[in-house]
Design brief:
Length: about 260
């Protein structure tokens, strides 16, 4: 039997064990989730597996982990929208915990997420392999876009300063609220776009250039937790356990994320 088949069978077995346990905890529940874009692509692949195995239904609302747009997770919670599970930037989840909106002991760190740069599909990809090369690429660009969530906060408040080009970027770099940055790049409204790699990859019409150089990279941790007002906390915990399991790791890695759970070997 080949190593590949053995790996697949072990992953499948792990998946069945996790989901069988989840099914025993919560049956036929409706789990309400609020999730930010960093995990959206693998989440959409994994949730149907959880639903089929447990009989639960997962109802999802998408929005940024931070910011003031109407679909941002903190804004949704502040206006009273119901949720059982929050999946968002770890620091932002920490704020929800401090505000009493999420249960401290329920927090589970799921993945590490690097920031990348995208260009419009078919256009030349600049060299961004070193901080100096990245600096020159930014100086050469006519327009730059970055998100209004964790990656964009870092880019706008720290990265440009670290590269010594904050003044040069002031007029040509723009924060994009409530829209994938790669979409802005794909339609030609920005020459370069910064966001989590997992949010850049799914957008048609944009090409990933690569991650930021290690010396100026900012790794974001995405975490999950149960809300203080959860109506289905046990079903929510089962979903989080599945997303944090080795069985879910391949889908997370495919999306450009580094899961805390090691994939089966």
């Amino acid at each position: 039997m080949s190593v590949t088949i053995v790996v697949r069978r072990r992953v499948a077995l792990s998946l069945l064990i996790v989901l069988a346990a989840a099914a025993g905890i919560a049956k036929a529940s409706e789990v309400r989730v609020m999730i930010s874009g960093g995990l959206a692509t693998p989440y959409k692949e994994l949730v149907p597996q959880f639903e089929r195995a447990t009989g639960n239904t997962v109802v999802t609302a998408y929005g940024p982990s931070m910011g003031t747009t109407e679909n941002a997770i903190p804004v949704r919670l502040a206006r009273g929208e119901a949720a059982d599970v929050l999946i968002m930037v770890g620091d932002a989840l920490g704020e929800m915990i401090e505000q009493g909106r999420a249960v401290r002991t329920s927090r589970v760190d799921l993945v590490r997420s690097p920031i990348g740069i995208a260009v419009r599909a078919g256009t030349p990809k600049p060299d961004i392999g070193t901080p100096d090369a990245l600096k020159q690429a930014l100086l050469n660009a006519k327009s730059v876009a970055y998100s209004d969530s964790a990656s964009g906060v870092y880019v706008g408040t720290e990265l440009f300063k670290r590269l010594g080009i904050a003044a040069e970027m002031k007029d040509k770099a723009k924060m994009i609220p409530a829209e994938p940055v790669a979409s802005v790049v794909a339609r030609g409204d920005a020459e370069l776009g910064f966001q989590q790699i997992s949010e850049l990859l799914p957008i048609a019409g944009a090409d990933l250039v690569g991650p930021l150089p290690p010396d100026v990279q900012k790794i974001t941790i995405f975490s999950a937790g149960i809300t203080s007002g959860a109506s289905q906390p046990e079903a929510g915990r089962a979903l989080i356990a599945f997303l944090a399991s080795a069985a879910a790791a391949p889908a997370l890695k495919k999306a450009g994320l580094d899961p805390f759970a090691a994939s089966e070997k």
